[in-house]
Amino acid sequence: MSPNPLGSPTPLLGFAAWSGTGKTTLLLQLIPLLKSRGIRVAAIKHTHHNFDIDQPGKDSYALRKSGADQLLVASAQRWALMTETRERQQEPNLIQLLPQLDHTQLDLILIEGFKHEAIPRIELYRSPIGKPLLYPDDPQIIAIALTATESIQPTIPRLDLDNSSQIADFIQTQLKPQQEPITMDTPKQPLLPFNQAQEQIFQQITPTRETESIRIKEALGRTLGEEIISPIDVPAYDNSAMDGYAMRGEDLPTGGSATLEVIGSSFAGTPFEGRVGAGQSVRIMTGAKIPSGADTVIMQEKARREGEQVTFSSEDNHKAGENVRMAGEDMGEGEAVLQPGQPLGAAELGMIASLGYSSVQVKKRIRVAFFSTGDELCSAGEPLGDGQIYDSNRYTVFSLLSELGVELIDLGIIRDQRELIEQAFHDAAAEADVVITSGGVSVGEADFVKETLDKLGEINFWRIAMKPGKPLAFGKLDGAWFFGLPGNPVSAMVTFMQFVRPALNHLAGKERISPFRIPLRCSNRLKKRPGRLEFQRGIMEQNEQGETVVRGAGHQGSHILRSMSLADCFIVLPEENGGVEAGDWVEVEPF
Ligand code: AMP
Ligand code: MG
């Protein structure tokens, strides 16, 4: 089994269940079965009762009650160590308790209780108890034991609660030497590395070539479809960077001061018509054309004006040519200033306008159809039925798509019925360049999304080595690109941000940009197990020393949208990372 997280040399296996599910009954069957297969077993049980294993009247009992903190009683058949915790009155944890066992004599330790300890567990479930699963989504749960009649379709191994020898078989396979750690990722199909999934998507999608001409005021957020070549110099003429006096560099004083005659003024939009000669200057404003003859501007703060005369001192170290912006300094005539694929933001649209263009050639908008799948979904605004949840993915996907400036087709919620799903996929693919759905793509789904997709298109169902967002479907459906996002709200958002957004940008012909990541110190501990690239939700803030640090945004469950809302970045933890201690450096991807 796993090299153990709690440092135990012997593999640990916990059993989790609501009381009444039959944990002890199962253990009573399992232990003799495991023993009969040569597996040496210890059991650790947590109880909330103030138990005692000795009894009044025995000498050992009296010795302990007289105040011995520990008592070891031994005979030829067995020995027992009793330790009083009365001083501390704290729940002992497994890290303290495990060294009490003789690990040289053990192959496996079965654990009941200690539900907050990070150990692999089998969860036992019975619906008549009337309680939900104790640990949905917990990667420490390696299998679920259910009776044959239960309708739950776990994505991890399902064991038969009434078949203890099958459960013993499962445990035995997990104990094989050099076995991979038992986790939810015990591969049925190996996990696909994150980068490979991203690359495969990029390689398949070819950017659109279609363009259209639109007015620049409508072009914000669009992608440039042509090369922009400057038809003019920008600025069009040499002009002043300051309010001051335009003059000839030769007339600067080399010692003491120089006094020049002021022969006129040049305002932005109203240039001085004459020529500046020796001993002359022109009053000039920022952006105004430099008069002919002049090549230097002295800022007005360094000039002393008296009537029609102005005086400059050599102490100010003026230089010939200062404070003059040269024609074509920003963009020169004939220069290629923007390339196709350039996203058009405020600066680019300003640049294009400064060249005199009122319209621009942009890439055609891509059309994206999206819908949610699931029988449990209810649209916002409608009354919630029993066992239903509101559809949130359609709103997060809609919002994320809106930011990309694509054309949107909202196809609503599609129920888990074969014909409906098939119809929805065909309709979506006919109308759109890209179809995005959420739900129904994980392994072991009870609905028809996967089955239908398998029939209709060339779709890959990936299990990606990332968290959240392990399942993702990607492929082609009737000529449209298809992305099947996982159903859990945070998984849907993360896979959208990490795969769909770059893919849509690529399809839209935008330049590929690598994600912007910065190293920051993490101010708290973050739990993680090696094996998957994790995008933990984080909050950037300043600590007391004024340094920018990041901390986890709280509950990291893939269904907890609130921590996504609190977060302003992902803390990106590489596959091999096994957890972060306070003060460690981490990589942060701001939203
Ligand atoms: P699925 O991938 O369909 O098994 O869904 C995984 C989890 O995500 C389940 O708990 C679903 O109820 C939930 N879920 C699926 N679709 C949505 C949705 N559109 N909005 C909110 N939660 C969803
Ligand atoms: Mg579903």
Write up this protein.
The protein has 591 residues and is of the alpha/beta class. It has five domains: 164 residues, Rossmann fold (3-Layer(aba) Sandwich), CATH 3.40.50; 54 residues, Molybdopterin biosynthesis moea protein, domain 2 (Alpha-Beta Complex), CATH 3.90.105; 87 residues, Molybdopterin biosynthesis moea protein, domain 3 (Molybdopterin biosynthesis moeA protein, domain 3), CATH 2.170.190.11; 141 residues, Molybdenum Cofactor Biosythetic Enzyme, Chain A, CATH 3.40.980.10; 73 residues, MoeA, C-terminal, domain IV (Beta-clip). The protein is built from eleven helices and 34 strands. The strands form nine sheets. Strands 2-5-1-6-7-8 form a six-stranded parallel beta sheet, with helices on one face. A six-stranded mixed beta sheet has the order 15-12-14-13-17-16, with no helix packed on it. α5 runs parallel beside α10 and α8 packs across α9. The longest helix is centred in the C-terminal third of the chain and has 19 residues. 34% of the residues are buried. About 2% of the residues have low confidence. The structure holds adenosine monophosphate (AMP) and magnesium ion (MG). The site of magnesium ion has 5 residues, from loops.
Show the helix and strand layout:
Blueprint: E1 12-16, H1 23-36, E2 41-45, H2 59-65, E3 70-74, E4 79-83, H3 94-97, E5 108-112, E6 121-124, E7 141-146, E8 158-160, H4 164-175, H5 194-204, E9 211-215, E10 228-229, E11 239-240, E12 244-247, E13 257-266, E14 280-284, E15 296-299, E16 304-306, E17 309-313, E18 324-325, E19 336-338, H6 346-354, E20 359-363, E21 367-373, E22 377-378, E23 389-390, H7 393-402, E24 407-414, H8 418-431, E25 434-438, H9 449-456, E26 458-463, E27 466-467, E28 471-477, E29 480-485, H10 489-507, E30 518-522, E31 533-542, E32 548-552, H11 561-566, E33 569-573, E34 585-590
Parallel strand pairs: 1-5, 1-6, 2-5, 6-7, 7-8, 13-14, 21-24, 21-25, 22-23, 25-29, 27-31, 30-32
Antiparallel strand pairs: 3-4, 9-20, 10-19, 11-18, 12-14, 12-15, 13-17, 16-17, 26-28, 28-29, 30-34, 31-32, 31-33, 33-34
Helix pairs in contact: 1-4, 5-10, 7-10, 8-9
Bound molecules: adenosine monophosphate and magnesium ion.
